[in-house]
Specification:
The complex is a heterodimer of chains A (406) and B (140). Chain A is α/β, with parallel strands linked by helices and 406 residues long. In chain A, helix 3 crosses helix 10 and helix 4 runs parallel beside helix 5. Chain A has a seven-stranded mixed β-sheet, with helices on both faces. Chain A has a four-stranded antiparallel β-sheet with strand order 13-14-17-16, with helices on one face. In chain A, strand 5, helix 5 and strand 6 form a beta-alpha-beta unit. The longest helix of chain A has 20 residues. Chain A has 14 helices and 17 strands. Chain A folds into two domains: 135 residues, Aspartate Aminotransferase, domain 1 (Alpha-Beta Complex), CATH 3.90.1150; 255 residues, Type I PLP-dependent aspartate aminotransferase-like (Major domain) (Aspartate Aminotransferase, domain 2, 3-Layer(aba) Sandwich), CATH 3.40.640.10. By secondary structure, chain B is of the alpha+beta class. In chain B, strands 1-2-3 form a three-stranded antiparallel β-sheet, with helices on one face. In chain B, helix 1 crosses helix 2, helix 2 packs parallel to helix 4 and helix 3 runs antiparallel to helix 4. Chain B starts with 6 loop residues before the first helix and ends with a helix. Classes of the chains: A alpha/beta (406), B alpha+beta (140).
């Protein structure tokens, strides 16, 4: 078992100095840093195994195709799912758009409803708005309790036989709420609705067992789990993917092409038009192996420990408002400091080498619900330490002093 | 990062000049910073071609509030033509980080470091973009 110090040594960027101070990277919910194991896997693949996949019959075409399909298997294992249901996309956003277009346009009908929550990232809201407008579907929103958890009593009432799709985050990127997705899936299936879970903030941080959760679709991104940008996963239940039309069309996704029509390749290739993100697939697979070696259970426990410390310390600080549930939560704390604009806070923390996110975090409707325009968010990962939580708190105090609020 | 949070900027943030609304504005314009959702309203009262009074309201970060405060201070009493010249000067200043030759920027010089902070440029220019829209509308 690696210590946190050993884990930190795996990440070259963590030895960086920013503005003369050691980097304290607390913007992991936006994107995570990459360990040397992932960087090396990428380099080795490019140096000795790279070619296009599913096309050539030469040696490198075979090794690259083998590695690419092995990557798919690795990702399927990470979330305990059937590899035939694992589609490589550009990221969570593309995964959700794929479902909204390929499933939604074909199967969601006029007068049916799409049920979401007010805590969705724009990526799990806007694609459904566009679809609803195109097919004449209704948008419904599962109400929230005051603490940012789902109101299970009121929400249940919205889940009737007209609901065709439930789309919701596994973990909120602002509130940190961990939604009871397994229970939601059960409830949704009882009324015949399909379920898409946005797992962008969950899959990198906790064990996800899709066989157990039972979701019809589950989406996540490589760059938030120590992999590269430009790749993500859409898991879809194979029997549903079979019935869906392609999202994009072109090479690789076809079986036979005539001048006036074409037939589709088998799943999951039917959804991977053109040359896929091959090197990125190698990178996300290396990341999945790295995280699995350390253990998602350990990562979740480590995140939880840091998040609890940050919550407790910030809650005790005068003028700080925290958002979301106080108890079990994802690996982040979102807050505001009275009189300090989140962008000023982030900029002042940056002077001390501390990176946090400020703004609306691609969740404007949620910020309207919270009654604020913007918030500050510190988000943690396997390489963060209690000392960095202390540095955050010191930075918050210093910012108040600079703006002369204390 | 160069230290944008200097004393002059912080002074304008803590004690903004010309903050509030005008009772009888000739026109009012709103500006929104898409980065953070900050909203700012400018009220302008003209006496002929001269800006007799100007106030700003809304919530924002230290940079956008200070920039708005400095804007009102620099332009109150100026003619429309002078204001248009100032808009050009300010844009040039924010882009290059240098005042054009022969121009006295006064407190606005506190925004010198902004040109090196591309993300925050929008905060500094928010009130100026609103002003530009106001002048456009005034010109009809």
């Amino acid at each position: 078992m690696k210590t946190v110090e050993e884990i930190r040594r795996d990440f070259p960027i963590l030895s960086l100095k920013v503005n003369g101070r050691p980097l304290v990277y607390l913007d992991n919910a936006a994107s995570s840093q990459k360990p040397i194991q992932v960087l090396n896997a990428y380099c080795r693949f490019c140096e000795s195994r790279y070619a296009n996949v599913h096309r050539g019959v030469h040696t490198l075409a075979e090794t690259a195709t083998g590695d690419y399909e092995e990557a798919r298997k690795t990702l399927a294992d990470l979330v305990q799912a059937d590899a035939r249901g694992v589609v490589f996309t550009r990221g969570t956003t593309e995964s959700i758009n794929l479902v909204a277009q390929s499933y939604g346009r074909k199967f969601i009908k006029h007068g049916q409803a799409i049920l979401m929550t007010p805590m969705e990232h724009h990526a799990n809201l806007v694609p459904w708005q566009v679809l609803a407008r195109a097919v004449g579907a209704e948008l419904r929103f599962w109400p929230l309790n005051q603490d940012g958890t789902l109101d299970m009593v009121e929400g249940r009432k919205l889940l009737d036989a007209r609901v065709a799709m439930v789309a919701m985050a596994h973990v909120s990127n602002v509130l940190g709420t961990i939604n009871p997705v397994r229970e939601i899936v059960e409830m949704a299936h009882r009324v015949g609705a399909k379920v898409l879970i946005d797992g962008a903030q969950a899959a990198p941080h906790m064990p996800v067992n899709l066989t157990e959760i039972g979701a019809d679709f589950y989406a996540f991104s490589g760059h938030k789990m120590c992999g590269s940008t430009g790749i993500g996963v859409l898991y879809g239940r194979p029997e549903i993917l079979e019935d869906m039309d392609p999202f994009m069309t072109g090479g690789e996704m076809i079986r036979e092409v005539w001048l006036d029509h074409a037939t589709w390749n088998e799943i999951p290739h039917k959804f991977e038009a053109g040359t896929p993100p091959i090197t990125e697939a190698i990178s996300i697979a290396a990341a999945a192996r790295y995280l699995s070696d350390i253990g998602l259970d350990w990562i979740h426990a480590h995140d939880t420990m840091l998040t609890a410390q940050a919550w407790e310390k910030l809650a005790a600080e005068p003028g700080v408002t925290l958002y979301g549930p106080a108890g079990e939560r994802g690996a982040l704390v979102t807050f505001n400091v009275a009189g300090v604009h989140p962008h000023d806070l982030a900029a002042l923390l940056d002077r001390d080498g501390i990176a946090i996110r400020a703004g609306h975090h691609c969740a404007q409707p949620l910020h309207r619900w919270l009654g604020v325009q913007a918030t500050a968010r510190a988000s943690f990962y396997l390489y963060n330490t209690p000392e960095e939580v202390d540095a955050l708190l010191e930075g918050v105090r210093a910012a108040k002093k600079v703006l002369q609020l204390v | 990062m160069s230290d944008i949070y200097g004393e002059i900027l912080l002074d304008h943030y803590r004690l903004p000049r010309n903050k509030g609304r005008l009772e009888h504005p000739t026109l009012s314009v709103e500006g929104v910073n898409p980065l953070c959702g900050d909203e700012l309203t400018l009220d302008l009262e003209f006496d002929g071609q001269r800006l007799k009074d100007i106030r700003f309201s809304g919530k924002g970060c230290a940079i956008s509030v200070a920039s708005a405060s400095m804007l009102t201070e620099a332009l109150k009493g100026k003619t429309v033509e002078e204001i248009e010249r100032w808009i050009g000067v300010f844009r040039e200043f924010i882009r290059t980080g240098r005042a054009p030759d022969g121009v006295e920027l006064g407190d606005l010089l506190a925004l010198e470091g902004i040109s090196k902070l591309p993300v925050r440029v929008k905060c500094a220019t928010l009130p100026w973009s609103a002003l530009e829209e106001a002048i456009g509308r005034f010109r009809g």
